Amino acid sequence: MEFIYRRVSTISQNTDRQLPDQVADREFEDKLSGKDLNRPQLNAMLQTLRAGDVIHVHELSRLGRSMKDLLKIVGTVVNTG
Any catalytic annotation for residue 9? Predict the structure, then answer.
């Protein structure tokens, strides 16, 4: 399956410019700060992943704000299966 993950920092912001023409099986969107990994839709997506799945994200900063968080997410993805 292919997934899209979109994130903006506040409810007043929108995700319209993040992968507007990308097609995927499922889409996940958070309107929360990326300061930590406690994001409901990010966690739902990570729990849904299976080996061979693909995640599309507009830019890495939408996935995680720090290298530590990005490495943790990548580790979760790589160890899926």
Answer: yes
